[in-house]
Amino acid sequence: xxxxxxxxxxxxxxxxxxxSFAATAAGxxxxxxxxxxxxxxxxxxxDMRGRYHPLNSAFFVGLSVGYxxxxxxxxxxxxxxxxxxxxxxxxTPHVGWQWxxxxxxxxxxxxxxxxxxxxxxTTVGTLTASQEKVISSIFKPFVLPSWTIIRLGYSF
Length: 156
What we know:
The chain is 6% helix and 71% strand.
C-alpha cells in the first residue's frame, strides 16, 4: 500500500495571554496498491479555531469551525462508480494542551467532538436507486470523535 501522510499544521495568533486564534490545515492520501482494484482515498481538512487558556496556561478550551472533504476514486473499469466525495462543514468543541517554546514553535494535542452543520455526498458513475440509497445511508451525517495526537505550528 502506498501512502502519503500529512501532519496537522497550524498558525496561531495570541490576541492576549488567555485567548488565541488559529488556522489549521491537514490532509492525507492513500493508493490501494492492488492491481485488480486501482484507486485512491484522500482527505483534506481546513478549520479556524478560537481558544481560551484559563490561568494563561498550556491547557485550553476551544471551538473550531471547519470544512472537510473525503474523496474516493476508482480506476476499475468493471465498477459502475468511478468516484465519490463526502464534504461537510462542522463545529468542534475541544480541550487540549499547547506548549510554545521561546522561538515561537508550538507543540500540542487536543480532544473533541466534531458535529456536522452541513453534509453533501456526490458520486460520479452510473448507480441504481438502491445503490444510491446504500451510499447515502453509509455516509449520512454523524458526530465523530476528534483527537489530534500531535499538533505542530508556529505562534506569532
